[in-house]
Amino acid sequence: MRRLLPVTDQSSGEDREWSLDELADAYAYPDALEGAWLRANMVSSLDGAAQHDGRSQPLSSDTDMRIFGTLRGLADAVVVGAETVRLEGYRPARAREAFAERRAAAGQGPAPAIAVVSASLNLDFSLPLFTEPLVPTLVLTGAAAPQDRVREAEKSGAEVVVAGDGPGVDPPRALRALAERGLRRLLTEGGPRLLGQFAASGVLDELCLTVSPMLTVGDAQRITGGPGLAVPERFAPTSVLEEAGFLFTRYRRI
């Protein structure tokens, strides 16, 4: 892998495998966060598809998965939509020795919490994500969520966090609720509908986008879904890495 942006002594230099420490330094969160910092990690084909046959994995690569693991290793919590939990077969985040010292120095637990966003709570609460996590899973929902499903979630061991007055979740309120629990370094892995809600609410601080050198054709979703913004929001590139035709880009909101 080589760095294309920002321009440094390593830019366009030797194409080599980066260590996890180098990746962690490259993707470090801002220092001294007062509130939540929300970072998204997504992959897209050259023609804008976020999925192939309903899953993101066919667009990925080994290095993309190493970056995926690094971003998880840096996060306090991973925020994910219920549909993505169902489609991608989410499991609890695991502790990784490679990040143990870094997490301890940052005052973090052994692994990030998984925070699932769901209005209906139509989830299988018997899955390991809820019954066997190293760090308790959170379920973000609205005040009008079905109470029988709330009880099922709590019975499984999950912590239910009400972050909306209706059935759904209000994104700014959800981020405040997580920050109040000490979960400020946030990572979302989608899906597109959830990322669209975050972007439309103006709470997305950073986008880590892997541009896959593949064409899919078809009518797959983009990385965001939902109503369009009245005025497009501008992000600025902060880094670009490249390996085997994959571009690993990072943008921050201006």
Unreliable stretches: none
Give the averaged pLDDT, no decimals: 94
Q: Rg from C-alpha positions?
A: 18 Å
Structural class, from helix and strand content?
alpha/beta
Q: Characterize the largest beta sheet: strand count, sense, and whether it forms a barrel.
A: 10 strands, mixed
Bin the strand percentage. Answer: 15-25%
Distance between the termini: 27 Å
The number of distinct helices, counting runs of at least 4 residues, comes to: 8
H and E string: EHEHEHHEHEHEHEHEEE
Strand order, largest beta sheet: 1-9-10-8-2-7-3-4-5-6
Percent range of helical residues: 25-40%
Oligomer: single chain
| Shape summary | globular
Task: Lay out the secondary structure.
Elements: E1 2-5, H1 20-26, E2 37-44, H2 62-74, E3 77-81, H3 82-88, H4 97-105, E4 113-117, H5 128-131, E5 138-141, H6 147-156, E6 159-162, H7 171-180, E7 185-188, H8 192-200, E8 206-211, E9 235-243, E10 246-253
Parallel strand pairs: 2-7, 2-8, 3-4, 3-7, 4-5, 5-6
Antiparallel strand pairs: 1-9, 8-10, 9-10
Description:
The protein has helices at 20-26, 62-74, 82-88, 97-105, 128-131, 147-156, 171-180, 192-200, and strands at 2-5, 37-44, 77-81, 113-117, 138-141, 159-162, 185-188, 206-211, 235-243, 246-253. The protein has a 10-stranded mixed beta sheet, with helices on both faces. The protein is built from 8 helices and 10 strands. It has 254 residues and is an alpha/beta fold. This is Pyrimidine reductase family protein.
Main features:
254 residues, 10 strands, single chain, ten-stranded mixed sheet, alpha/beta, globular, Pyrimidine reductase family protein, 22% strand
